[in-house]
Amino acid sequence: MATFTFIDAFKDFQGACVPDLDFTNDQFTIYLSDNLPIVATDSLKTDIPNITEQFGYAETNLTTTWVETSGGSGIFVLRHNADVVWTASGGTFGPFRYAVVYDNSTTTPLDLLVGFWDNGSSISITDGNSFTVDLNATFDIFSLDG
């Protein structure tokens, strides 16, 4: 999996300590898109359209935890302890290139983009095949380590 790229607006809201942004309690969601995220200007989910939800693909809520990697390390991570897997069933979904994460709990602004992974090229998943975003315990969504 490629390196996670933050959206600038997310970092801005984080630095401004916006009360609507809560890593411990918010619902984070992942979806697929074939639209290039523009780091400097995109800020809301509506800025990066989802591909059509069909044939086994739908955006997926993540079950996240906000934890320190080890006591006193000062490195905190947003973690989802399982891979996200979409399996095409009854047809093909895609094309897509990006796996995008947004905060599904924020209301001001609504659905704040967090960041994305770039697959490197557009792909489509054919019937019976799967696409996996590797988010097991050794691959965190993102970390903050000041």
Description of the molecule:
- The protein has 146 residues and is mainly β.
- It has 1 helix and 10 strands; from the N terminus they run βαβββββββββ.
- It is globular and about 45 Å long.
- The relative contact order is 0.29.
- The model has no long low-confidence stretch (mean pLDDT 85).
Short structural description:
By secondary structure, this protein is mainly beta. It has one helix and ten strands; from the N terminus they run βαβββββββββ.
Largest sheet: 5 strands, antiparallel
Number of domains: 1
Average pLDDT metric: 85
Shape: globular
Low-confidence regions: none
Number of helical stretches of at least 4 residues: 1
Strand content: 35-45%
Q: What is the radius of gyration?
A: 15 Å
User: What is the share of helical residues?
Assistant: under 10%
Please provide the ordered H/E string of secondary-structure elements.
EHEEEEEEEEE
User: Strands of the biggest beta sheet: in what spatial order?
Assistant: 1-8-7-2-3
Class from secondary-structure proportions: mainly beta
Number of strands: 10
Quote the distance from N terminus to C terminus.
23 Å
Key descriptive features of the protein:
146 residues, mainly beta, five-stranded antiparallel sheet
